[in-house]
Structure to design on (164 residues):
């Protein structure tokens, strides 16, 4: 309720609390209110479906490589290989000299890939690895990884130094 004083007389008006748009015409108000309610309803329902899809795909394969982890690993290894020399591979090991002259090794250790410098350290670079294979080719180094969930991942690191 609001009190207004007009020409010495107190006028009491009732004010409706409304969440929707202000209205002057009662006939149009219900239609606009209906449209606004439907827009809010469909927005919530469509957002809920997307969230459920995201949650269900993240929990289907808890033993699988995470896509972000795989991408970060590839970027880091590509950066190191672009400055590397004397690149050598065995079935499950990649060895090269970095720009400081240190020997860097990537190899599988239990269910992960690790990085070692001069045979020391235990830097984990990739988790959930069942099997890994490094192959040296004319165009670079190919890495094949099988996750603990059985999913195959493959990437070829191109060596710009050796192609020139």
């Amino acid at each position: 309720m609001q009190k207004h004083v007009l020409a010495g007389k107190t006028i009491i008006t009732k004010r409706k609390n409304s969440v929707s748009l202000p209205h002057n015409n009662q006939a149009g108000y219900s239609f606009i209110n209906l449209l606004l309610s439907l827009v809010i309803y469909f927005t919530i329902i469509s957002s809920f479906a997307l969230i459920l899809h995201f949650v269900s795909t993240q929990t289907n394969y808890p033993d699988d490589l995470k896509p972000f982890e795989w991408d970060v690993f590839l970027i880091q290894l590509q950066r190191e290989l672009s400055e590397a020399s004397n690149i050598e591979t065995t079935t499950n090991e990649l060895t090269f000299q970095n720009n400081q002259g240190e020997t860097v090794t990537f190899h599988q250790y239990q269910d992960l890939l690790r990085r070692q410098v001069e045979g020391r350290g235990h830097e984990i670079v990739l988790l959930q690895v069942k099997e890994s294979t490094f192959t040296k080719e004319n165009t670079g180094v190919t890495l094949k990884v099988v996750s603990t969930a059985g999913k195959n991942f493959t990437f070829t690191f191109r060596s710009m130094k050796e192609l020139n």
Summary: DSSP finds three helices and ten strands in the chain. The helical segments are 26-60, 67-82, 160-163. The first strand starts at residue 2 and ends at 6. Strands lie at 2-6, 9-13, 85-90, 93-97, 103-109, 112-117, 120-127, 129-137, 140-147, 152-158.
